[in-house]
Design a protein that fits this description.
The chain has about 250 residues and is an alpha+beta fold. It contains four helices and 14 strands. The strands form two sheets. The chain has a nine-stranded antiparallel beta sheet, with helices on one face.
Length: about 250
Amino acid sequence: MKKLGKIIGILILIIGVLVLVGYLTFNEKRPPVSASPEADSLAVKMLNAVNKRAWDSTHIVTWNFKGGHTYVWDKKSNFVSITWEDYEALLNLQTWKKGRALKGKQEIKGAELDVIRGKAWKYFCNDSFWLIAPFKVFDEGTSRSLVKNAVGTNDLLVSYSSGGVTPGDAYLWKIDKNGLPQSYKMWVSIIPIGGVEATWENWIKQPSGALIATNHQLGPLNIPILSLKTGETLEEIGLSKDFFDKIR
């Protein structure tokens, strides 16, 4: 028994050393924030490249996040349906704590309802960011800074002081000559190492003209956006027009 405890202790020590070495090797210091009109201009160039005006006019969006969570989002009414495993949460994004939730066909009540609604809200904040982050660079609570890169051009640092479930996060966008995002580096509370990079690729033009990236590579992890559909009505994406009546 003592021998087993010693082996476990050695393994924990080795893992701790590897984590420390990884942190010291790969951790990148977050660039300082220095908001400027030039940074705002670069952000506008990115918004034009992805056609934010067309995104703003898009009414309905549905997608599946890397095979796990499926969303139907009515952007104009602020309603969203989130399904995963046997659960479905139906939220009004302005008052999500009053939304409904089901397990199978059974309505969830009491304390469990708060748990499921809170989980659904966190899923939506995370997963929708991977869908539409380029459109959010002027959200309330953001600041924008220029950061010189290795080739002498500027990347765009967007810092979030509020919003979502992890305020304080920051993203350093690498943008091509036309303004289209290629990747970003992240300084986020859920990742202990700063400067981890994820790609933004496989851009697909939507019927409205908006461009949406449908794949991200984060180290060895692939994060696909699956079954993406957008439209002006629920019927356009294959749903009945009364889909959201149960949460109105």
